[in-house]
Write a structure and sequence with these properties.
This protein is mainly alpha-helical. The chain folds into two domains: about 90 residues; about 160 residues, Intergrase catalytic core (hpI Integrase, Chain A), CATH 1.10.443.10. The chain contains 14 helices and three strands. The chain is globular.
Length: about 300
């Protein structure tokens, strides 16, 4: 009987209306993308890339923005760039703002997918042999600060921008450490120096001009130009500062037997997929593993 009565109310549309609870999502809030972006930044979000999309979405109500329109905006702003650039510059910043707005109940929550990205091209890092030839040529050319810079990056994993900002006050030659300030992934990062690097830094410090950074250069483009010139004179393949620095540190440390966790801590990596997928590039991996299996002779007596 109760079921029949309920069905009758559905048919006649006489069910009592229910007032919305306090805080329920209202699909038409009147909030714009600019409102959400400003709130996102005020609550600790990154606003670097929002300047690019703000002229196009700033005054658009949040309810009128769809995933399709976001994708089309990314294509319009970066028509010839790769999907990785579109994701980094457009999709990810907008998605962060939209999700923040949804958390504040300013807009419904919906999924914003990234463009499919091509796998990164693995770069061949500088081998110990390459570094040996480079250091000898740089010393022969009198470019001792360039040799020390590349040795610093290839043994500590420092990025070229971090290395060029290094001041003598941040270097402790007695304890063989250097403190990198304002790194990409953390505020400060301590790096440990090899004995040969400490010797080179001692020599640099003796003739260091007052008020100059440790490696006496400010622009990474100038560093790469010097590297290219040294490579030409040495007759070796050119490798950028990032490849003969941070990439070399990851691959060479692993080849020397370093474990993943220790190498990541030493070089300031936080993401295992990034570390293994981009930076570590084993040389002759198949032969190396085969030689390890050769240590066990299966036809020998146990």
């Amino acid at each position: 009987m109760a079921i029949d009565s309920l069905c009758l109310k559905f048919e006649n549309n006489t069910l009592p209306s229910v007032a919305p609870l306090n805080g329920d999502i209202l699909l038409k809030t009147g909030r714009t993308f600019r409102d959400a972006a400003e709130s996102y930044v005020q609550h600790g979000g990154e606003g670097k890339h929002l300047r690019i999309v703000m002229p196009h979405l700033g005054e658009v109500p949040l309810d009128d923005i769809s995933p399709f329109e976001i994708e089309e905006l990314a294509k319009r702003l970066y028509p010839t760039q790769k999907n990785a650039t579109r994701n980094r510059q457009v999709i990810m910043p907008i998605r962060a703002v939209i999700y923040h707005a949804a958390k504040r109940r300013w807009s419904p929550h919906y999924r914003i997918a990234s463009f499919r990205e091509d796998p990164p091209i693995r770069k061949e890092p500088a081998s110990p042999e390459w570094l040996h030839i480079f250091f000898r040529q740089a010393d022969h050319d009198g470019l001792h600060h360039i040799a020390a810079l590349i040795m610093f990056m290839s043994t500590t994993g420092a990025r070229v921008s971090e290395a060029l900002r290094l001041e003598w006050s941040e270097v402790d030659l007695m304890n063989r450490t250097a403190l990198l300030l304002k790194t990409k992934t953390s505020t400060n990062s301590k790096r440990f120096l090899t004995d040969r690097l400490v010797v080179r830094l001692h020599e640099l410090k003796e003739s260091a001009p007052t008020g100059k950074p440790v490696f006496r250069m400010k622009c990474r483009h100038s560093v790469n130009e010097r590297i290219m010139a040294v490579c030409e004179r040495a007759g070796i393949e050119y490798k950028s500062s990032h490849v003969c620095g941070r990439h070399a540190m990851a691959s060479n440390a692993m080849a020397l037997g370093g474990d993943i966790k220790s190498t990541m801590i030493a070089g300031g990596w936080r993401s295992i997929p990034v570390f293994l997928g981009i930076y570590v590039n084993p040389r002759n991996a198949g032969r190396s593993i085969a030689e390890r299996f050769n240590l066990h002779h299966y036809d020998a007596d146990l």
